[in-house]
Amino acid sequence: MHEMSIAMAVIGQVEEAAERAGDVTAVRSVRLQVGELAGVVPDALSFCFELACAGTLLEGAELVTDTVPGRARCTPCAHEWAVGMPPLLSCPLCDGGATDLLSGRELQIVGVQWEDGRTPVPTAQPIPEER
Amino acid sequence: MCRVVDLKQAVLAKNDRAADALRAGLAARGTTVVNLLSSPGSGKTALLERELGLARERSVPVAALTADLATENDAARLARSGVPVKQILTDGLCHLEAGMLARHLEGWLPDAARLLFVENVGNLVCPASYDLGETLRVVLASVTEGEDKPLKYPTAFGLAHLVVVTKTDIAEAVEFDEAEFRANVERVNPGVEVVLTSARRGLGLGTLLDRALAAADGAPVHAPVMAREPHGHGHTHDHADGAGVLTQPHS
Lengths: 131, 251
Description:
The complex is a heterodimer of chains A (131) and B (251). Chain A is an alpha+beta fold. Chain A is built from two helices and six strands. In chain A, the strands form two sheets. In chain A, strands 2-1-6 form a three-stranded mixed beta sheet. Chain A has a three-stranded antiparallel beta sheet with strand order 4-3-5, with no helix packed on it. In chain A, strand 3 and strand 4 form a beta hairpin. By secondary structure, chain B is of the alpha/beta class. Chain B has one domain: Rossmann fold (3-Layer(aba) Sandwich), CATH 3.40.50. Chain B has eight helices and nine strands. In chain B, helix 2 packs parallel to helix 3. Chain B is globular, with a radius of gyration of 19 Å. The C terminus of chain B is likely disordered. The chains are: A alpha+beta (131), B alpha/beta (251). Chains A and B meet through helix 1, strand 1, strand 5 and strand 6 of A and strand 1, helix 1, helix 5, helix 6 and helix 7 of B. Strand 6 of chain A pairs antiparallel with strand 1 of chain B, so a sheet runs across the interface. Chain A: Keywords: Metal-binding, Nickel, Zinc. Chain A: InterPro entries: HypA/HybF (IPR000688). Chain A: This is Hydrogenase maturation factor HypA. Chain A: Involved in the maturation of [NiFe] hydrogenases. Required for nickel insertion into the metal center of the hydrogenase.
């Protein structure tokens, strides 16, 4: 099970990004894209993530995973299909042999939600105090 | 205040960068890496022992690293071939990463080595996700493991540049259906070459060495469908490097 290594890679990258941002005080959530063919089990990853976050800036952060279905396209006949699991990567229509995988291998941090020390920038003029 | 920040970073970016650096560094000194993946007990060591022996007979300078959770048994077996061999003990870790490999090569890899065979930890799940800077990734399965092995471990077989069937000397006894196995490989990795071997009977020996040398000479290796980046991007590492990371706060 390499989900612990994956969880630690996620934490390391978020910590680096937070350090670059400078004034992050806590991380609330991390959003990941996990493709069907990425070879990662989201439940196992969530379990490891929670454990590995302990004692870091990410302690208590929620891991949100968006699963990306695998889709493929045949170059010769342009047919597009959902590859399924186990994946079918040769064209079911023409057996063309030249397939483009359009999605399904993603293993990416999409974004994070964190708290920083900055005060919200006012977007409108403050309402004048009534006298 | 609470802020949502776009990161757009590949989770394995760090490993991928280390793998790219290792591949480039080794290429500059004339060494090509071959990464061998299989289940425990598939016969990686037995086949590799024979291939290393052949390399020695042909005066091809090669070296081998073998990774296990514990024991130096495999290194002792491979060393019988007479080529430089090193054992990596992972202390329980289920896979090798590029940075670990690089550390083990420092000060050990013989200058002349044309090929470096890396026998990964016996495991078809985790090692599949980690690029070790190899030019050729070989996935092995023995005839006893069932024809549907490629369907059960699609990421491992789907990313292989070469598939090797081992222990074919007992294929008949275990009623191995070669056509079905090939069809299952084709489903997850169309066009990949499947080689039949028996280390015991000497069948198919030398093919692995030949394919590795061809790859080292710059011959094009098979491009698995699964290894092609979505949206025709062409490679698997991200462009985000340190300060280059996109950070777009939404209020």
